[in-house]
Amino acid sequence: MTLPAPSPFARHWRLDPGTVFLNHGSFGAAPARVLGVQSVWRERLENDPVRFFVEHHYAAMDAARRSLADFLDCEWDSLALVTNATTAVATVFAHLRETGFLRAGDEVLVPDHEYPACQNIARHDAPLAGAYVVPAPLPFPLGNDHRAAEHTIVANILAHASPKTRVVLLSHVTSPTALILPVERIVHELRHRLGDSVRIIVDGAHAIGFVPNLRPAALGCDYYTSNCHKWLCSPKGSAFLWVRDGLREGLRPLVLSNHAERGKPGRPQFLTEFDYLGTADCTPFYCLPDAIQTMGLMAAGGWPEVMRRNRELCLKARDLLCAALRIQPTAPDTMVGCTCSLILPTPPDKARRLAERPCRYGDALQDVLLDRWCIQVPVWNWTLATGRTMRLLRVSAQAYNSIEQYEYLAHALKTELEAE
After folding, report:
1. HSE of 242 in the Cβ direction (CA atoms, 13 Å)?
2. Chain-centre distance of CA 2, in angstroms?
3. Residues paired with 343 in a beta bridge
């Protein structure tokens, strides 16, 4: 079998040439140069671990944090470095519960497109405080009218907010449906209605390196988190939690190390506690400046051009797949970034039966695409709050991808869907 060639930029990655990799969105993929830098850091660490952690670790963390702050146009000491966005969300929920901010009778508002792990956190922590999770159903698909789609999303969320709403958890880029939500407008409307009595957490797991001009401090939220190992292309296990001014004091990590009770002179306790949770490989964080630089050099126009090209490729892939499968786009162009989700043409009853077939991934079709066609792309069955189940395909577009790879995917999908 002859596979379609990736883009010329694929030479910068170590991806298996025997796989058509169209799933950057799940875990990202770090360029070879960044992985090489990580190896250098690991070598330095292992040469003398004691000396490294005592003399070099904090300086390396601060350099990473300053580089990230420049990219996000925020204060460097507003950022905690964490291993992933899920951990950040869990940290904030635990803090709000343990400090008594979240109390009996309060409501936690969570749209139904939120990442399942973060929904699990809300459903776990809210009852511990005697609070309740209120799901806000969002429509899908949304059609092509941007204004109508945005109005519907905002209206649906506001319709489920009440004077009892104490915490709101929002995705910036939804995981199952790959929508860029109008977070700034949602936050503004929630503030107008609820004031400062609510804490707003934005789960931007995909957002950094994906959403142009990302500025957490300008959104009006209280907490913002994003995974750097996705679209920023740093090594796995690197993310950040931004906390607005006035809320950092007393916010503690889930794990308290030796430094929790004896801080470092001249250093905010917020940074001291988050920067050392015990012995761990922190090299993914040390590589953040190199990841930002490496990806920015992929295009003459730097990061803005990288994001623009990825989005344009994603839109072309979406249109190609829609034409081949005779389906419609699920959202207006303005809500699409470097990933898009499509509803596969499978009747709901049949989709439920197919979902029961044994498989390694979320749907047996994903197994078939990988085993028979060497395509790595996610397929899953997703159920809305209304009970409707959809069979979704989510494709990603990174610099290493080519339009020929999506043409190949379209052919494979047509073949397999007709055979089911």
Report:
1. 30
2. 33
3. 392
